[in-house]
Write a structure and sequence with these properties.
heterodimer; A: alpha/beta; five-stranded parallel sheet; 5 helices; about 20% strand; globular; B: alpha+beta; Beta-Lactamase; 4 domains; six-stranded antiparallel sheet
Chain lengths: ~120, ~500
């Protein structure tokens, strides 16, 4: 079962809460990145099974980051997150090749595992 | 003899300056030719019912009283000698006017030693337009042939005088036209059928830089039409002269023109053909519309900027909400969830998480409040400029003083503009100007609210910078003006005058 995760979001509050909540459920948080460039650098270095990727990053769109990550590591499970809901971004996220989309309000270990294992 | 009279009359009338002068010269010519002592011209008064003496000529006789009485006389149709001739339309001869009981002026005539009287109608195409009478010192018998001749002379005088009148009114019209063209603010340039300038008014002199006498006689195309359009202009004129089909005639067009120094400017132009006999003549009325186009462009640009500024403001609000309170609230929700999971397994951790969530929530509320105030300060709506500006000064990151502010209320748009001028000035002072203090004064001027923000910072602010440009547009939209004085090293003064009914 996939247990290694990288969290990519420019809001430290979200990274902290997500790390705490997933960590409590047994996930190993292998790293945190605050923008797209850091994410692209950290993925080959830390070799996560899952990347939790915010759509609205300050340097480059999360959608574009997902495309590049999957080009390099086709087996990677990318899950997009946003404060916006599925109606706004769900389709865009799926089109990028990501495994799925989660609204930040719905983030939990259970919801994440359901997506990753689907 | 009468042939001589006619020639003398023609000569006399031709050198006259106006109708009265023509009559006077005609009276003198006839009087001298026929040996009259006094001759008078009678013309209908405005009421059309009375004749009055309009011109009188006197020879050598001592006839002052008779002349005075003649000049003050008014005759209705059939009355007196002039009235009789006016009614009858034929010449009349009275052998001795001094003793004719029908004549009202007989006593004065007797005193003046005047006897024979002759009167004949002055005729034009309009009919009898006047009567000429003459008196001589002797009493002579009627001369039928002379009477007939005088009737012919009367027609001659009538026509000559009518022509003088027509010429005179033509000259007046010409003078009136000249004065209009000279005073016109529009350039009036007239050209002949060859395309050469025959008239160049003062406005055209000012606009194009040629003196009228330099311009006249030169080809118009060469003077004011840009080089690449000249051939088209000439071709248009040629085609019109050949076919009579106008291309530009009568319509208003906007086109470029060139000045003497080669510089170009936009003009609006109408060309009309002047209806004169012979070769056609064209008059162009031109107006420099540089300023009008500039104002139109400024207006378009400021409207576009206002719309863009509104869009950008909405985007900024969305960003602020998304990055600020929305993230904080997501975090609060997640922390609360973590707390809920920990309540039973680890109450101490749960308590810690709840406190963290509470702090995050307070911070989110504070951020929302700031954001709301930035969008539009509620205190401005509720309390007006006084409390709104004082609040602004209190929260300002530097010593800020409100030196004057009216307690009265103004239209919402005026208050908002004044508020944002003050807010922008204070923000710039704190963020960019490295100022140590800022002063804000707001007062009621003449039908306007005036705002001044003064800081002691490093100056050099640009009125074209995003914030100030947007502010200037906001003030301009209310018909006001924003002035930025910011010499480097001397601080910045921001001054807005915002019109409002007092």
């Amino acid at each position: 079962m996939a247990r290694r995760i990288l969290i990519v979001d420019d809001h430290p509050g979200f990274r902290r809460s997500a790390a705490r909540s997933l960590g409590a459920a047994g996930w190993e948080v292998v790293g945190e990145a605050e923008d797209g460039a850091a994410a692209l650098r950290l993925v080959p270095e830390r070799e996560p099974d899952v990347v939790l990727l915010d759509i609205g990053l300050p340097d480059v769109s999360g959608i574009e980051v997902a495309r590049q990550l999957l080009e390099r590591s086709p087996g990677l499970a990318v899950v997009m997150v946003s404060t916006h809901d599925r109606a706004d971004y769900g389709e865009l996220a799926t089109a990028s090749g990501a495994r799925g989309f989660l609204s930040k309000m719905d983030l939990s270990a259970t919801a994440l595992e359901a997506l990753v294992e689907s | 003899m009468s042939g001589r009279i006619e020639q003398a009359v023609a000569r006399a009338v031709s050198s006259a300056t106006d109708a009265a002068d023509a009559y006077l010269r005609a009276l003198e010519a006839i009087g001298r030719a026929l040996g009259w002592e006094v001759a008078a011209a009678w013309e209908p008064e405005e009421d059309g019912e009375h004749l009055a003496c309009s011109v009188i000529w006197k020879g050598d006789a001592d006839a002052a009283d008779f002349v005075a009485q003649t000049m003050s006389s008014h005759f209705v149709a059939g009355e007196g000698l002039p009235g009789e001739v006016w009614t009858a339309g034929h010449a009349r001869w009275i052998v001795d006017a001094a003793s004719d009981r029908r004549l009202p002026r007989r006593e004065a005539a007797a005193v003046a030693g005047l006897h024979s009287a002759v009167a004949f109608p002055v005729r034009s195409e309009r009919g009898v337009v006047g009567v000429i009478e003459g008196f001589c010192a002797t009493a002579t018998d009627p001369d039928a042939e002379l009477l007939e001749r005088l009737e012919v002379v009367g027609s001659q005088i009538g026509q000559l005088i009518e022509r003088r009148r027509a010429e005179r009114s033509g000259a007046t019209a010409e003078l009136r036209y000249r004065a209009t063209v000279e005073a016109s603010l529009d350039c009036v340039i007239t050209m002949d059928h060859r395309g050469d300038v025959i008239e160049f008014n003062p406005a055209a002199e000012r606009t194009f830089g040629y003196a009228g006498e330099e311009a006249v006689g030169r080809e118009m195309a060469e003077l004011i039409v840009p080089p690449e359009l000249r051939e088209r202009h000439r071709e248009g004129l040629r085609r019109y002269l050949e076919t009579g089909e106008p291309t530009l005639l009568g319509s208003r067009i906007e086109i470029e023109a060139t000045r003497r120094d080669g510089s170009r400017f936009p003009v609006e132009l109408t060309i009309t053909r002047i209806d004169v006999p012979g070769d056609p003549v064209f008059t162009a009325h031109l107006r420099d519309i540089t300023e009008r186009l500039r104002i139109e462009r400024d207006l378009r640009e400021s409207r576009a900027r206002l719309v863009k500024a509104a869009d950008e403001a909405r985007q900024r609000i969305e960003r602020d909400l998304h990055d600020g309170s929305q993230q904080q609230l997501v975090s609060v929700a997640m922390t609360l969830q973590a707390a809920a999971s920990a309540v039973e397994s680890d109450p101490a951790v749960a308590r810690e998480l709840l406190e963290e969530a509470s702090a995050e929530l307070r911070s989110a509320i504070g951020e929302l409040r700031e954001l709301a105030r930035g969008i539009h300060p509620a205190v401005l709506t509720e309390g007006g400029l006084d409390p709104a500006l004082r609040g602004l000064a209190t929260r300002s990151g530097m010593p800020a003083t409100i030196t004057a502010v009216p307690k009265d209320r103004f239209p919402a748009a005026v208050e908002a503009a004044a508020y944002f001028v003050a807010a922008e000035g204070m923000t710039n002072a704190a963020r960019h100007a490295e100022a140590s203090r800022v002063e804000v004064a707001v007062w009621r001027g003449d039908d306007a609210l005036e705002v001044e923000v003064r800081d002691d910072g490093r100056g050099g602010a640009s009125a074209e910078g995003g914030g100030l440009r947007g502010l200037a547009d906001r003030v301009a939209a209310l018909g006001g003006e924003l002035e930025v004085r910011s010499p480097a090293g001397e601080g910045t003064i921001l001054r807005a005058v915002i019109p409002c009914e007092s």
